[in-house]
Amino acid sequence: MRILVSNDDGYFAPGIAALAEALAAVGEVTVVAPERDRSGASNSLTLDRPLSLRRAANGFHFVNGTPTDCVHLAVTGMLDHLPDMVVSGVNHGANMGDDTIYSGTVAAATEGFLLGVPSIAVSLVSKAATDFSVAARVATDLAERFLRMPFRQPVLLNVNVPDRPYEELAGVRVTRLGKRHKAEPVIRGVTPRNETVYWVGAAGGAADAGEGTDFHAVANGYVSVTPLQIDLTHTGQIAAVSEWVGR
Amino acid sequence: MRILVSNDDGYFAPGIAALAEALAAVGEVTVVAPERDRSGASNSLTLDRPLSLRRAANGFHFVNGTPTDCVHLAVTGMLDHLPDMVVSGVNHGANMGDDTIYSGTVAAATEGFLLGVPSIAVSLVSKAATDFSVAARVATDLAERFLRMPFRQPVLLNVNVPDRPYEELAGVRVTRLGKRHKAEPVIRGVTPRNETVYWVGAAGGAADAGEGTDFHAVANGYVSVTPLQIDLTHTGQIAAVSEWVGR
Amino acid sequence: MRILVSNDDGYFAPGIAALAEALAAVGEVTVVAPERDRSGASNSLTLDRPLSLRRAANGFHFVNGTPTDCVHLAVTGMLDHLPDMVVSGVNHGANMGDDTIYSGTVAAATEGFLLGVPSIAVSLVSKAATDFSVAARVATDLAERFLRMPFRQPVLLNVNVPDRPYEELAGVRVTRLGKRHKAEPVIRGVTPRNETVYWVGAAGGAADAGEGTDFHAVANGYVSVTPLQIDLTHTGQIAAVSEWVGR
Amino acid sequence: MRILVSNDDGYFAPGIAALAEALAAVGEVTVVAPERDRSGASNSLTLDRPLSLRRAANGFHFVNGTPTDCVHLAVTGMLDHLPDMVVSGVNHGANMGDDTIYSGTVAAATEGFLLGVPSIAVSLVSKAATDFSVAARVATDLAERFLRMPFRQPVLLNVNVPDRPYEELAGVRVTRLGKRHKAEPVIRGVTPRNETVYWVGAAGGAADAGEGTDFHAVANGYVSVTPLQIDLTHTGQIAAVSEWVGR
C-alpha cells in the first residue's frame, strides 16, 4: 500500500513524524508537507506563484505552499503512482464541528479525496499535545483496515483522537460534525510602532455537542470518525429559495 | 439596510468597485477587503500574526489578510452593528461546481453566514471580465429582495452571472453545484536560477453539468443561485462507515 | 524629464501621492510601488517567485514585491526609456543614521542608482505624519535643480525633511549619516493561542548626532541631504586584516 | 567561545549544517536561522508582525523571519549572553561585488556587527554546490584565529571560498568588493492562468574584477576576505553636493 502523508503544521512537526513512523508498518510512506506552519489554511490553493519541492535530511519533502498545494503537487506532479491513501496529520489540536472548514489538516485529506484517493485526516484533541503516538496508532489501525477490507465508496474521514493512552480509549464512534457557537471577537493589540492590530480570536465553544456528534464522542473518550462529503449544496433549501426568487 | 462588502481579488479590483457602487442604492455600504489578490484562499484564517486595517482614499478598508479574515474582523471588531447582509464579489471568474471549496469569494460570504448574517457570493462567469455592472446589478436585485421580503432561514447564496447584457439574461435558476473532472496536473517550469518549480494547473472541466446544476444554468444564459450549507458531514455514509469500522 | 517614483509604504500611501503630484510639475511621472507596506524591506529582491504588475484606478502601478523589485522591474522590463531620475518616498518617518540600511525607501533609490539613474530617497521626519506636501516640494526642488544643472557624477541622495511648513525650513545641509545606539531588545508577547512571539523593537537613539550629521541637521530645522555610495568595503581595514590573517 | 550561526538559505540547508558541525570544534554553537529560504533578503527586518521561534529535532532554532530578524531576535531576546561571534552561511553561491547589498547571508553577519559582535559571512562560490565542508573549515580557521588573537576593532568579514578541495586552495587574500555590470533584465513569463509575470534576472557579470577584488582572488583560487563597513555616506561627494545644492 502506498500512503501519501501530509499535514498543516509543517513538515518538521512532531505529529507528522509520529504518523509517518507508525504508517511505515503498513505501507510505503511518502511525506509531502508545508515548509512552514499553515494552520488555518483551509483548502487554499496557491495560484499566483509556482511551488518548489525540496527534500529534508530525513527524507520528508516540503513545499512552499499550503496543505492542499502539497497533496495536489504530490499526486499530479511528483508521485509515479496514484497513492492508495492520503493520511493528513497528526494535527496538534482538534478539528471538530463547523470549525472543520478552516482546517488545513482536513483540507489536505480533502484534496486527496477530490483527486480520487481514500483519505483520512487525524487530529489529537489536546492543547498541550506532546505524545502523538496514540493518534498515529489509531490512524494506522484505520489504514490497515482499508488494506484488509477496502471501502466500496470514495471515502474522506475526519478522525479526532482523545489525548489519553491507547488502552484507555473507549472505542470508536462514527459521528456527525457538531456545531460551535460563534467565534470569539478579534483581540485588539498595539505594536511597538504604535499601530493597532487585531488577532483572530478563539473558536466558539460547542453549541451542538449532543449524542452523535464528534464533540460528544471525544468528550466520552471515544475516537470520533466523521465521514465527510464536499458538496456544499443546501439541497433542503432549493425549493424555498426557488419560491423566494420567483416571487 | 447595512451591507458589508468583501471579495478575494483585493480591494482595488474593478469587481468590488462596481458592486459597492450598485449596492449603495439599496443600503449603507462598508467595504472591507484583502489588500492584495487572494484568489484561491478558501476559508483560510490568519492565526500566526495579527491583522491591520487601513482605509484607502476612496473610503474602502483593506486588511493584510484573507477574505475570511476581512469579514471576521469587520463583524467582530470594527463595525458597531451586525450588518444585515454580507455580499462578496464581484469575482473575476466563475465559482461553480466542487471548485467552490477553493473560492475566497464564497469563503467571505461563508464567514458572514457563520457569524449569523445572510450572505451572498457573486461571480462573473468570464475569463476576460471587463464589465462587472451586470453582475453587480443582479446582486443588488437580490439584496433588495432581501430587504422587501426577508428569508426566514439563515441563508448563504452562491450566485454566478453569465457575461452578457442585463437584458439578455435568460432569468434566474436555483441550482445545485455541479461536479468537475479532476484538476489538470501541475505544470513544471524552470526559474532563471535553474530551479524546478510547479504551477497549479487549471480546474477540471465540468463532469456533472446536467439539468439542475450551476454549470447548466449559466451555459443556458441564466443567473445561477445555489443555496449553500456548511455541514460537511456525509450523513448518507454514517451507517456504512459504522458497519465498516465495527467489523 | 522622465521620473520614476516608488516607495516602501505601498502605492496607496499618502506620501507617494503627494510626491507624484508635486513632481508632475517638473516631469513625466510614472509610479511603480509595492502593493503592500514593505517598510523595513531593505534591498531585498524577490528571487523565488515571479512578480506581477498591476495598474490602479489612479494610474499608479503596483507590484507584489519589494521596493527594489519595483524599480528593477520598471527599469528593466516595463519602461520604454531609462528614466532620468528615480525618486522614492515620501516615507512616513525618518531614514537617518546607520538605520538607513534597513530602509526600503532608500533601497528603491539605490536600485535606481545601481541601474545608472540619478536617484533620491525622501523621508518625512515625523511619527504622526499627516502632511507630505512640504517634503514633496523639497524633492521637487531637487529634481528641478537636476534638470537645470545635471550633476556630473552618478548620484544617490538620501533626503530627510523636518515636519514643519516650507517657509519655516532653515535651509539645506549636506550631511553624513549619524550613528545610532544599539536597537532596543525584541518585545515579548503572547498570542491568543498562547504562543510566545517577539516583536522587533524600536531603533536605538542617536549616538553620533554631532555637527555634520543628518540627525543634527534635522534637529536644527534643516533639510538633510546625504550623498550615499554602495561600496561596503572597509578600505581602512584592509591592511590590518591582511596583517591579522597573515599572522 | 560562544558562536551564533545563521544563514539565508534556511535552517534545513546543508550549508548551515556543515558550518555548525565544523564550528562545534572551536566553540559552543547556537543555530538560529530562517524557517524558509530567504535568499535575496538583504537587511530586511520584519516590522508588521511578530516573530516565532521554534526548535527543530536536531536542536537548530528557526524563525519565521529574515536572516536579520534571526540574529536580532537571538541576540536581543533569546541568548543569555552576547555571543563572541556571529557566523553566517555557508551560503550556496557567491556573495561578491556590489551584489553583496542584496545578500541575506551578509545581512545576518551585518546585524551581528551592528549589535557589537565580530561577525563573518561565508559563501561557497559554486552554482552546483554539494560539498560545504571546505568553506565550513575555512570559517572555522577564521573563528579559531579570532579566539587566539582577537582583532582590536569591531570587524565584519565577507568571505568567499572557491569550490575546490581544502588542499588546493591557493591561500587567503584580503580584498575589496569588485563591481558588476548592470543586472540582466527581468524575464517575462506567462502563468497557466494566462497572466504576465516577471522573474528577476541574473546578476550582471563582473565589471571590475581586477587585482585586489574579491572576484580576482576567487578566480585565482584564493579565499577572499573582504572587511566591510556599514556607513553608506559618500564622503568624497559631500563637498561637490554641497556646492551643487548651494548654487
TrEMBL record, chains A, B, C, D:
It catalyses: a ribonucleoside 5'-phosphate + H2O = a ribonucleoside + phosphate. One of its GO terms (molecular function) is metal ion binding. Residues 3-183 form the Survival protein SurE-like phosphatase/nucleotidase domain. Binds 1 divalent metal cation per subunit. Keywords: Cytoplasm, Hydrolase, Metal-binding, Nucleotide-binding. It is found in: Cytoplasm. A divalent metal cation binds at D8, D9, S39, N91. It comes from the Bacteria. Nucleotidase that shows phosphatase activity on nucleoside 5'-monophosphates. This is 5'-nucleotidase SurE. It comes from Pseudothauera rhizosphaerae. The lineage of its organism: Bacteria, Pseudomonadati, Pseudomonadota, Betaproteobacteria, Rhodocyclales.
